[in-house]
Write a structure and sequence with these properties.
The complex is a heterodimer of chains A (about 270) and B (about 575). With about 270 residues, chain A is mostly beta strands. Helices cover about 5% and strands about 35% of the residues of chain A. Chain A has a domain of about 150 residues. Chain A is built from 2 helices and 19 strands. In chain A, β17 and β18 form a beta hairpin. The longest helix of chain A has 5 residues. The radius of gyration of chain A is 20 Å and the shape is elongated. Chain A starts with a strand and ends in a 7-residue tail after the last strand. Helices cover about 30% and strands about 20% of the residues of chain B. Chain B is built from 18 helices and 26 strands. The radius of gyration of chain B is 22 Å and the shape is globular. Chain B has a domain of about 400 residues: Metal-dependent hydrolases (TIM Barrel, Alpha-Beta Barrel), CATH 3.20.20.140. The chains are: A mainly beta (about 270), B alpha/beta (about 575). Chains A and B meet through loops of A and loops of B.
Chain lengths: ~270, ~575
């Protein structure tokens, strides 16, 4: 695998849209050709080299190309958008829409990620080692079809609307989530190892959500089924006792959504 | 300022003049087609070499939803429609977004890129006429007009119930003038009024609440008034029960209602010289036949009912239809038929918007996705094409997608290619649900439309139907200098092997010329030509109008605005162009 190293070389004022930073674009290109790839800054189109020093060259194909971003890219949007193969490692915090509509390959963010990470993702792996904010793996605003495949792992916390409208794939959050996690979910799996605040699984019609920690305000359209122990979804394991609910009855007479809430943390339910 | 232009050596397709691919030159001066240019004029003329290319009049869309309150609601409720479909600004164009409900500027550019120069907004609620004209004001490239929604209007229902046809006519004339609109639109007659009480009407002889009038009486009355006044176009009908399995029977019966009404077009216009009589000869224009031709009794035994209706149309001379074809993919359903949109929202669980326009009409909006894997959608795709292929005479058919109900107008190239190529249809059959073949007759149709037929159903028929053939839809001397040049060599056309090529060629016309100006070239917008808004300025007996206005003013206490604020002044229109109707009075 051939590695291309990008090092931020300037302070960015207006955020840039850099969906060209992905193995699919870098593959088969020399250092100079990569430097000339175009990014948008507001209404202007500028070469990548205005924002990054480039070292190395692309591999023979996207599979053979890895990209290492050394530093903070919190004002760079859409890194790895629609990528199909290869690997991107970001040694810092990344901007909005990292891995948006990603189809394959792997992205590792060693710092935090801004909103809309993995939005409408279709395949591949996005691993955020820090925290992220809203709309992780969510549908774009107005749409009801979010992530449909692939896997997102967050080591830290997330905020609201995680997995909104997801139809497939897996989101695993090791920290806490806030509001409307899995809203309008119709497929796929969301696992929250920590706590959640409210409206978890609101208007869900399919798919599965597991919250191991405490849910502060429970979704009213959920109906209690029974208790289950030591859940296992292929390679994803959630140990302990869970209360199983189906829903959301607010949106359908026969909803197929399943919500597991950790028993110990939710004794009042 | 319109340039002088000479289009040389193109294969010309001009059905109103029975020109079928002949190699000819077309000359345009001062925005109009002229027989020839003098040597001096030729020196200053822009010459376009159309050798080996297809030349047609500019496209005319006689049914599209691109301006007004419901279109804007569609834009507001669909941010997701915009973010993947955006076009940056250029030195002469605005930027724009939106696939199924594009922003106003983008609508104009995208129509021009396809070779269209004229479009009619298919539903203008009277109270929203100002808004509609404001949006039309900002749509570049296109000559436009709008149809006034009158099928559930309180005044119309009252006058028709009382049998006072003269007052009804006076009301229509005054309303057209007041709201600067062009023709009569009738949507789910009597049914939308019932929707105010959460109900609908299910048959042509069911009376509605309070007014106790039937759809049949409204269709009868409106068509009678339309021809009594001599409006440019026939009544534009969106029939009852639209979108319900089995609705084809209602539609077929609706078409029989104006069978004996004699078409009468009483317009004071200067006619371009055409070989075929360009005047109105139809008494009813049924829109989006596909949506009005559902067979079966439920979604389980759903099937195409198109053939029954096309058989009827083939046997009659008073009907013209447009197809409302479904090209698959994203759509936004929007119509004055509030109850039908509610049904779609319940069926799909999708987001929904609904509006009652006071005493006049209503409407609804609901996003929709047509999937090749869905059995019903696949049959609908077949039905849209059946609508155009099973009617023998292309002078009775118009190609539309009921934009954006069946799909966005940017997919017209797909529909045109399906019509021209059986191979392309067969390829699609192999991708869609098998119901498309099992529950329609399309599989057995081997007809392939020619470029001449395409010019007929996208130019000549819509222009003639709408009473615009005096200046649109033909390349006759005196017609507007609106020309489309496609980079298609008719002598080398192979619709079996090369149909994919047609999709791009129709999507981006080589040249779109509007009033003698090159508006678009190969997908790029070259200039923003002058444009006009047409409306019908109808004269009626002054006494009748006075008596009618007394009623209207009396009932205006139920409106939320004052009578003086009701009309749309001419300043809302871009180049207002009245068509004088019924000048004898």
């Amino acid at each position: 695998m051939t590695e291309v190293v990008l090092t931020p070389n300037t302070e960015i004022d207006i955020k840039i849209e850099a969906d060209v930073i992905k193995p699919d674009e870098f593959a088969g290109k020399s250092k100079e050709e990569i430097e000339q790839l175009i990014v948008w800054q507001g209404p202007d189109q500028l070469p990548l080299k205005n924002f990054f020093d480039v070292e190395g060259q692309g591999g023979s194909s996207a599979e053979e190309t890895s990209i290492l971003i050394k530093g903070d890219v919190s004002r760079v949007k859409m890194i790895g958008a629609e990528m199909t193969a290869g690997k991107i490692t970001i040694q810092g915090t990344t901007g909005m829409k990292v891995a948006a509509e990603m189809k394959g390959g792997e992205i590792v963010v060693e710092g935090d990620a801004d909103s809309w990470a993995g939005t409408e993702m279709k395949g591949g792996l996005l691993h955020i080692k820090g925290n992220t904010v809203d709309h992780l793996g969510c549908a774009y605003r107005g749409s009801w079809k979010g992530m449909s495949g692939g896997r997102i792992v967050v080591d830290g916390n997330v905020q609201s609307q995680v997995g909104g409208g997801i139809t497939g794939g897996e989101i695993i959050i090791n920290g806490n989530a806030e509001n409307f996690c899995g809203i309008r979910q119709s497929g796929g799996l969301i696992v929250i190892k920590g706590n959640a605040i409210r409206a978890i699984g609101a208007e869900m019609s399919g798919g599965t959500i597991v919250v191991e920690g405490h849910i502060a305000n429970f979704t009213p359209g959920m109906q209690y089924e029974d208790e289950q122990y030591d859940l296992c979804f292929e390679d994803i394991e959630c140990g302990g006792a869970f209360k199983k609910f189906t829903g959301d009855f607010a949106i359908s007479k026969k909803p197929k959504g399943v919500l597991y809430a950790g028993k110990e943390a939710n004794l009042e339910l | 300022m319109a340039a002088t232009i000479a289009i040389k050596n193109g294969h010309v397709f001009d059905p109103l003049n029975e020109i079928n691919g002949d190699i000819m030159d077309i000359y345009i001066k001062d925005g109009k087609v002229v027989p020839e240019l003098s040597d001096a004029e030729m020196k200053n003329a822009k010459v376009v070499d159309a050798t080996g290319k297809t030349v047609m009049p500019g496209g005319v869309d006689s049914h599209t939803h691109i301006a007004g309150a419901k279109v804007n609601s569609g834009r507001l409720m669909r941010p997701e429609d915009s973010y993947k479909w955006n076009r940056p600004k250029t030195s002469i164009t605005h930027g724009g977004t939106g696939e199924t409900v594009p922003s106003v500027y983008l609508e104009g550019y995208e129509y021009a890129q396809m070779g269209y120069t004229t479009a009619f907004e298919a539903a203008v609620p009277p109270l929203e006429a100002r808004h509609t004209h404001e949006e039309m004001h900002s749509i570049p490239m296109l000559d436009m007009g709008g149809y006034l929604v009158l099928g559930n209007n309180w005044f119309m229902m009252r006058y028709l119930k009382e049998g006072d046809i003269n007052k009804a006519a006076a009301y229509v004339a005054w309303m057209m003038r007041t709201h600067k609109t062009y023709g009569i639109k009738c949507v789910n007659p009597a049914g939308v009024e019932n929707w105010g009480w959460g109900k609908n009407v299910e048959s042509l002889d069911e009376t509605n609440i309070h007014f106790e009038i039937t759809p049949r009486e409204i269709i009868e009355g409106l068509t009678e008034v339309n021809e009594m006044l001599g409006l440019p176009m026939p009544v534009h009908l969106h029939a009852n029960n639209l979108g319900h399995p089995g609705c084809y029977e209602t539609t077929k019966e609706s078409l029989t209602i104006p069978a004996k009404v004699k078409p009468n077009q009483d317009m004071g216009v200067e006619w371009a010289e055409t070989k075929i009589d360009p005047t109105k000869d139809k008494s009813i224009y049924l829109t989006h036949l596909q949506f009005n031709a559902f067979g079966g009794t439920s979604w389980r035994d759903f099937e195409s009912g198109v053939k029954d209706i096309t058989d009827y149309v083939n046997s009659q001379d008073h009907v013209v239809i447009d197809s409302g074809s479904v090209p698959f993919g994203e759509a936004t359903c929007m119509t004055g038929d509030g109850p039908s949109i509610h049904d779609i929202a319940v069926l799909t669980g999708s987001k929904w918007s609904n509006c009652d326009v006071e005493l006049e009409c209503g409407s609804g909006v609901c996003p929709f996705t047509y999937l090749k894997s869905n059995p019903v959608h696949s049959v609908q795709w077949a039905m849209g094409l059946e609508s155009l292929l099973l009617i023998d005479d292309p002078w009775k058919t118009i190609m539309t997608t009921d934009n954006p109900n069946g799909g966005p107008f940017t997919k017209y190239p797909n529909v045109m290619t399906w019509l021209m190529s059986e191979a392309y249809r067969n390829e699609t059959f192999s991708e869609v649900h098998k119901w498309a073949n099992d529950r329609s007759t399309l599989g057995g149709v081997s007809r392939e439309l020619s470029l001449y037929d395409i010019a007929t159903i996208t130019r000549a028929t819509p222009a003639k139907t709408n009473g615009m053939a005096h200046r649109k839809g033909s390349l006759a001397v005196g017609a507007d200098g609106d020309v489309t040049i496609y980079d298609i060599d008719p002598t080398r056309l192979d619709v079996t092997a090369n149909y994919n090529d047609l999709l791009t060629k129709f999507r981006y016309a080589d040249y779109t010329i509007k009033g003698g100006e090159i508006a678009a070239h190969n997908g790029e917008i070259m200039s923003i030509p002058e444009r006009r808004t047409y409306y019908s300025d109808i004269k009626v007996d002054a006494n009748e109008e006075k008596k009618m206005l007394e009623d209207v003013k009396d009932w205006f206490r139920y409106y939320t605005l004052g009578f003086e604020n009701y009309p749309t002044p001419e300043k809302y229109l871009v180049n207002p162009t009245p068509i004088n109707v019924n000048m004898e009075k």
